Amino acid sequence: MSVKINNLEIENVKRVKAVVIEPTQNGLTILGGNNNQGKTSVLDAIAWALGGNKYKPSNPHREGSVTPPNLRITMSNGLIVERKGKNSSLTVLDPQGNKGGQQLLNSFVEELAIDLPKFMESTSKEKANTLLQIIGIGEELIKLDMEEQAIYNERYQIGRIADQKKKFAEEQIHYHDAPSDLVSTMELIQQQQMILAINGENQRKRENAQRLQTQFDYEAQEIERVKNQLQEMIAKHEVTQNDLSIAKTSAQDLQDQSTAELEHSLQNVEQINLKVRANLDKEKAEQDAENYLNQYKELDEAIKAIREQRMKLLDNAELPLPGLSVNEGELTYNGQGWTDMSGSDQLKVSTAIVRKLKPECGFVLLDKLEQMDMITLNEFSKWLEQEGLQAIATRVSTGEECQIIIEDGYVIKDETAALTQQQAHADSFAPTTKTDTPVPPITPTWKGAAF
């Protein structure tokens, strides 16, 4: 069961002259009053009494007082905590009269409960780490965050390269009239040599045909000139005529191929290759851009998977407040970051986390509650009652929302004490029969703060 403050008596601490307060067990007890009247001094005194000398005010002794500070707090578990005397030494007594010390108080007093500003003024990441340690998934989420950050950084670099490649590809010149492959000068020369060889062979065949024609003409003349060798020459002439016929048949359909196109290609091969290389560079740049874009998408999916895993961890965790979460390493409440939360939400979140840190500590000290309007203040008070939490808070106000008003170091209004006295008085005179007349409630009067 959580430990709360039943009663506190403070004398000569900072601005407090003498106060006795019985805070509400469940809900909000507001110490009201104008500035510099001693409200915050009450909270500082409680923090000093329960939290140890590290919370001791730099000048705890009330100015003008000859009596040293005197603190006495009675806890709901029966412990009595005192600081008194010149050295304000600590005494802790249990219900059996056994003495204890600061270590006993530390077993149920949460440091942030008496020093809530320490939590509220920490960074968003520190708040988130506190929450994650409470619910026991801090190390897993840190590992996931590191993995996500690494992939995020890689994806960022890949995205930049993809954009650069895309822009580079768009800036490249493309020649639609260029062939798809580079033109080889050696291949062109080889083609030219092949055509020249074919043309040479054709020329040889023409020369052969011409030679045979000359021979035929010569032999015809010889036939005429040499009658005595006519038969021999006719036979020879017939053979020659046959060869001539074959040669003409072989040569008559021959067509010489032009080397003009190859010669033109040879003259412009470098220009053509420049265009081809430009087209190849553009295609490679476009392919590179597409590859990096695909990598970016894959890394994006990996980040989504990690974030889903993180959300699953948080969804399954026992959080101290509905709507509380951690997003990208920072604390959020109902989807809002710390700086976007209202002042009341910040207090509610802080109180809930502090309560979860040490469930044995059933109280929390809150300063400067004037940042809440009346509606928000009532909602916060109801939430504290619902959670079974005791909150002792200060507010620069003397309105009805303040159960206790402190002026010049004294309590001048104490509704919590009045309610306690009224209930005790009513119980002692409770009617025993239906005909008994109920005793009217007592209107409390303040009789000073003597111990």
Description:
This protein has 451 residues and is an alpha+beta fold. It folds into two domains: 176 residues, Rossmann fold (3-Layer(aba) Sandwich), CATH 3.40.50.300; 142 residues. 52% of the residues lie in helices and 16% in strands. The protein contains twelve helices and 14 strands. It has a six-stranded antiparallel sheet. The protein has a five-stranded mixed sheet with strand order 11-12-3-13-14, sandwiched between helices. Strand 1 and strand 2 form a beta hairpin. Helix 6 runs antiparallel to helix 9 and helix 7 packs antiparallel against helix 8. It starts with a strand and ends in a 23-residue tail after the last helix. The C terminus is likely disordered.
The structure class reads alpha+beta
Number of DSSP-assigned strands? 14
Ends apart, CA distance between termini: 30 Å
Compute the gyration radius: what is it?
A: 52 Å
Instruction: Kindly give the count of domains.
Output: 2
Measured by DSSP, the beta-strand proportion falls in: 15-25%
